C-alpha cells in the first residue's frame, strides 16, 4: 500500500499499484479499530476495479463482526443520503471521482454522514495501518452483508426540495459520463415529465471517451455540439461519481 493515497479529504491512487483488494480489506479493519461501527454502508462508482474493491471492503468489515449494507452502484451523494438519513454507523464509497480509469479511491463518513478527512480520522486510519493495528481487530461472530436499493428514497428526498408544479417542461442533455448518475437522472425525468436527451448514459468503467471530468474542455465538446444541434434548453454534465456537475446554456 502506498501511504500517499491518504489525502486531505479522501483516498486516491492507481489500481493495483498504489491500492488493491488487500488494502481495502485492511482499511475496513482499521476503520473498525478506530470507530467501532456496528453497521456500515458501502457503495461504488462504475470503474472496472470498483466491484472487487467494494467486495474486499465488505469482507474486511464482515470478518470483524460489522454488518454491511451494500447499496451497489451509486453516486457519492447517494452514500451521504443513505448514511445521513439512517442510524448506520458510517459509510464508504469506492470511487476516484473525476480521475482517469486506472485510478480508484474512497470517500468515508461516520454516523449522520459526518465527513472523515485528514483532521477527523483519515490520517488516523493511515497511521493505524502503518502500526498494523488492523490485525488487533477480531470477532467471534461474522457480520452480514445485505444488499439494499436506496434510489427511490433518495429521489423522493431530492424532489422534496422543489416545487414540482413550478417546473416547466424543458428539453435538456444529460451527460452521465458513463457513471451511475444515469439511474437517478432518468427517474427524476420520469417523475417530472421532462424531455431528456441521454448522452454517455450506460455505465462503463473503461470511460471510452476519456477522463470523466466535465471541467476539461475536451470532455465538454460533445455536449456543447449536441446542445446546439438538438436546440436543447440546457445541458448537465456529471463526473464519474456525480459530485461534480457543469451546466451549459442553450448556446452550449
What would your notes on this structure say?
- The structure is a single chain.
- The longest helix has 15 residues, at 21-35.
- This protein has two domains: 3-149, Alpha-D-Glucose-1,6-Bisphosphate, subunit A, domain 3 (Alpha-D-Glucose-1,6-Bisphosphate, Chain A, domain 3); 162-248, 3-Layer(aba) Sandwich (Alpha-D-Glucose-1,6-Bisphosphate, Chain A, domain 3), CATH 3.40.120.10.
- The protein is globular.
- The mean pLDDT is 97.
- The protein is 34% helix and 21% strand.
- The chain has helices at 21-35, 50-62, 76-84, 118-130, 151-159, 181-192, 217-230; strands at residues 11-14, 39-44, 67-73, 90-94, 103-110, 145-147, 171-175, 195-199, 234-238, 245-248.
- By secondary structure, it is an alpha/beta fold.
Provide a quick synopsis of the model:
The chain is of the alpha/beta class and 252 residues long. The chain has helices at 21-35, 50-62, 76-84, 118-130, 151-159, 181-192, 217-230; strands at 11-14, 39-44, 67-73, 90-94, 103-110, 145-147, 171-175, 195-199, 234-238, 245-248.
Shape: globular
Count of the domains: 2
Largest sheet: 6 strands, mixed
Beta content? 15-25%
**Distinct helical segment count:** 7
Give the radius of gyration: 19 Å
Query: How does CATH name the architecture of the largest domain?
Result: 3-Layer(aba) Sandwich
CATH topology of the largest domain: Alpha-D-Glucose-1,6-Bisphosphate, Chain A, domain 3
Poorly predicted segments = none
Helix proportion of residues, in percent?
25-40%
Oligomer: single chain
Amino acid at each position: 500500500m502506498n501511504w500517499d493515497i491518504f489525502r486531505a479529504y479522501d483516498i486516491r491512487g492507481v489500481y493495483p499499484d498504489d491500492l488493491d483488494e488487500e488494502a481495502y480489506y485492511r482499511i475496513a479493519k482499521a476503520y473498525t479499530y478506530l470507530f467501532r461501527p456496528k453497521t456500515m454502508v458501502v457503495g461504488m462508482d462504475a470503474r472496472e476495479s470498483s466491484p472487487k474493491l467494494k467486495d474486499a471492503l465488505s469482507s474486511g468489515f464482515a470478518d470483524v463482526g460489522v454488518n454491511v449494507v451494500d447499496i451497489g452502484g451509486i453516486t457519492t451523494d447517494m452514500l451521504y443520503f443513505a448514511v445521513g438519513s439512517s442510524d448506520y454507523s458510517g459509510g464508504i464509497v469506492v470511487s476516484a471521482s473525476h480521475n482517469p480509469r486506472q485510478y480508484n479511491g474512497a470517500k468515508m463518513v461516520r454516523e449522520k454522514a459526518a465527513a472523515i478527512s485528514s483532521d477527523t480520522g483519515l490520517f488516523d486510519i493511515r497511521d493505524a495501518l502503518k502500526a498494523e493495528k488492523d490485525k488487533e481487530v477480531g470477532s467471534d461472530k461474522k457480520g452480514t452483508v445485505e444488499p439494499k436499493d436506496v434510489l427511490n428514497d433518495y429521489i423522493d428526498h431530492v424532489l422534496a426540495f422543489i416545487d414540482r408544479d413550478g417546473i416547466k417542461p424543458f428539453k435538456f442533455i444529460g451527460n452521465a459520463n458513463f457513471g451511475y448518475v444515469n439511474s437517478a437522472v432518468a427517474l427524476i425525468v420520469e417523475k417530472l415529465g421532462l424531455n431528456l436527451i441521454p448522452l454517455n448514459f450506460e455505465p462503463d468503467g473503461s470511460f471510452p471517451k476519456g477522463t470523466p471530468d466535465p471541467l476539461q474542455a475536451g470532455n465538454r465538446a460533445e455536449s456543447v455540439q449536441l446542445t446546439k444541434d438538438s436546440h436543447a434548453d440546457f445541458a448537465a454534465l456529471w463526473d464519474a461519481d456525480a459530485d461534480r456537475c457543469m451546466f451549459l446554456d442553450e448556446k452550449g
